[in-house]
């Protein structure tokens, strides 16, 4: 069984793979990128929900920190959700320049966000939640996206 940090870090890599696939397809044809975009958007939303509905909630309950790192990560999730939505709209409009401009912005934001989570928040979560780690990973693994 993986730790919270291992599980969520691996899921970052999974989302990154979907992102790279989407960009590769979009380089050839925006029409061909729509399915890859949907896969990326769904994987990313699932990741956000695993964090927000499970890990962040458990961390906040255990530590009492509700206005700290989890609040900042939620704020960044809102920004990334907006960019993902706008990318989908650019695909629908067949606007390659807008799609790739948004994609570049999202990639930079995701890299910075993921680094903060992996180096700081996941480490803190693992320290505070190590005893509950198997249960929390199971909850994230079996979660249905709303």
Automatic annotation (TrEMBL):
<dbReference type="InterPro" id="IPR012312">
    <property type="entry name" value="Hemerythrin-like"/>
</dbReference>
<dbReference type="Pfam" id="PF01814">
    <property type="entry name" value="Hemerythrin"/>
</dbReference>
<protein>
    <submittedName>
        <fullName>Protein containing hemerythrin HHE cation-binding domain</fullName>
    </submittedName>
</protein>
<feature type="domain" description="Hemerythrin-like">
    <location>
        <begin position="5"/>
        <end position="125"/>
    </location>
</feature>
<dbReference type="GO" id="GO:0005886">
    <property type="term" value="C:plasma membrane"/>
</dbReference>
